[in-house]
Write a structure and sequence with these properties.
385 residues; mainly alpha; two-stranded antiparallel sheet; two-stranded antiparallel ribbon
């Protein structure tokens, strides 16, 4: 074949779109990183060091809410990695998030010790259901390091196995979205059963301590918030590096023209499987940080509706932009916190309206809208000059 024909050569980094920076550019990225760093430092200080009667004091509930939203931002980053950059819409990422939460929840339940209602070495729900001993899969969960390992391995291995068979069978598009939704629904129904040993409908709650520290102590909550913020920054930098690398450019090529990528000599299966597994692991880590801060984990976290909501975060913020998912998760969950208190019956209608607005009028999300407004302002400024 003719060497001048670009269709027969692997795409170079210069030929593929450069992901990872987004409409806000390098300055926007630096500003967001700086803002996150300031929040990680400032919020605990305002909570712990500022007197409660001061206008600058942040309550424990505010710290917990901010930490929870940061965990959601990690999930949005993970979702954007697989959907925005690779073009694979998952409606099951809530499952990976919940599995990470359950892994940490098992450790937190074991940490209660004999301080439960029944004063038994077994978790209260097991005593209530007349369990005589811990199931084998609860072994070693009294160790924090083991629970942390489970929070990474369980979502990662499940994603690896599921993704291998799905991608090898070349399932894509809406069909892939449907089977991921079916997967999380099946898992939710399984975890609802009392005999599975995961607390059934009620899940895990009434946590007492983590690593020997009281889980309700202000210092512990501030530390968990700071850890969530630090992990969010680390994930943001990791995704920026990954999407800006050759690997990330191949992911974007798979999103835009998978047959051509195969024709160029690349095997999309391994790229999709790798990014799919990485995305699941990120969700598992977010879930493990989420549970100690909210104090509960139950099968409702696996609801297909939660996974759909994750997709709404990314769509509203801006797919295939590095910072868009963070804004989307922050906007939706900030609004959710307010709506569920002020207008609890209207939240789902508002969420649906957000998705419609994002689909019809904000194809590039709020980040894209900001770029459009900035471009118009610059154009008007040039015309005026």
């Amino acid at each position: 074949m003719n060497a001048a024909n670009p269709a027969v050569h692997p795409p170079s980094a210069a030929q593929l779109p450069v992901p990872g920076h987004g409409p806000l550019g390098q300055r926007g990225m630096a500003a967001v990183l700086a803002a996150l760093f300031v929040l990680v430092v400032l919020v605990p200080v305002l909570n712990l060091a500022v007197p409660a009667d001061s206008a600058l004091h942040l309550s424990a509930s505010t710290v917990a809410l901010a930490g929870k939203i940061m965990c959601y931002m990690m999930v949005a980053l993970a979702m954007n990695l697989i959907w925005g950059y690779t073009g694979i819409l998952s409606l099951g990422h809530g499952l990976f998030f919940a599995l990470g939460g359950y892994a940490m929840g098992m450790y937190l339940m074991r940490s209660i010790g004999r301080e439960g209602v029944y004063q038994s070495d077994l978790p209260d729900f097991m005593v209530f259901l007349d369990w005589k001993e811990l199931p084998w899969y609860w072994s070693f969960t009294e160790h924090f390091w083991y629970a942390a390992l489970l929070a990474v391995l369980v979502p990662g291995v499940l994603a690896l196995v599921f993704g291998f068979f799905a991608f090898r069978s070349r399932i894509k598009g809406v069909y892939f979205s449907i089977i991921t939704q079916a997967l999380t629904l099946a898992a939710m129904l399984l975890f609802f059963r009392n005999e599975t040993g995961f607390g059934g409908n009620n899940g895990f709650t009434d946590f007492k301590r983590i690593l020997g520290f009281s889980i309700t102590a202000p210092e512990t909550r501030a530390t968990l918030f700071a850890l969530s913020g630090a992990m969010l920054i680390a994930m943001l930098l990791f995704v920026r590096w990954l999407t800006g690398s050759k690997f990330g450019r191949i992911l974007t090529a798979i999103r835009d023209a998978e047959p051509r990528v195969m024709f160029c000599g690349y095997q999309p299966l391994y790229y999709k499987l790798t990014v799919w597994t990485i995305s699941a692991v990120m969700c598992g880590i977010a879930g493990a940080l989420y549970v100690p801060q909210v104090g509960i984990i139950n099968p409702g976290e696996m609801s297909p509706a939660n996974s759909i909501e994750i997709a709404v975060w990314v769509a509203l913020g801006g797919r295939a932009t590095l910072l868009g998912p963070l804004f989307g998760a922050g906007i939706v969950n900030g609004a959710k916190s307010w709506f569920t208190q002020a207008f609890p019956d209207m939240w789902l209608f508002f969420l649906g309206a957000l998705f419609i607005v994002a689909t019809l009028w904000l194809p590039n999300g709020v980040v894209g809208l900001w770029q459009q407004l900035r471009s118009k302002w610059q154009a008007n400024k040039e015309d005026a000059a």
